[in-house]
Amino acid sequence: MSTGPDHVHCVQCNITYDKASRLTSSFFIYLSVEDQIKNLLKIPGIADELVQRQTETPPSVSDICDGFLYQKALSGSDTPPRTLTLTFSCDGVPVFKKSPCSIWPLLCTINELPLKMRQDNVLLCGLWFGDEKPHMRTFLKPFVDECVELEDSGFTWENDKGVSINTKVIPLVLMSDSVARPLIQNFKQFNGKYGCSYCLHKGKLVEKGRGSTSSSAIRNKLMNL
């Protein structure tokens, strides 16, 4: 919330920051998931393109909606558009070649949309900018809070026929690499002791090229293949 042209007040921290201050080199913005999905569903034809959920895994699996785990997680839920699921991702991108600053976008896609339409309608829900990695408990808090509300109560919107529909939204899948994943999980990095997110082995250093790496790091990379 802004308090003037040169200051901004953070409602989460309850602190007013000077925009020109070097002490505020890291900041983020958040965009409502609900508002973006509502706007997307208002586009003519979008709601009609929502893929109806399968009741059993078909012989040929070509997308997430065909998968056994997807169907198991959504068993007992209403079909689209009354229940939608999200795949979300977060990763860092350097802004300039010789700058320590980077941006970390928080992106979402609706799994029930056809693949091409899904790729053309990516939702930007958050954006972190700074010279250090995001503080995930701060950066992801608005997203987590809104997702809890959307899964419990959903939101109401009106289709092109004037029918009011209550839609619930479930964040189902997280996509991230081995660097971003431990930050999101509040977990030790993959190359540290007990850094494997799949087992309880503490790992050990092994020779690799001219140096060494953690065996838990190798295991994590293999699990990502």
Automatic annotation (TrEMBL):
Superkingdom, natural source: Eukaryota
Keywords: Ribonucleoprotein, Ribosomal protein
InterPro entries (UniProt xref): Transposase_21 (IPR004242)
One cellular component term from this protein's GO annotations in UniProt: ribosome
Protein name: 50S ribosomal protein L28
Organism of this sequence: Labeo rohita (Indian major carp)
Organism lineage string: Eukaryota, Metazoa, Chordata, Craniata, Vertebrata
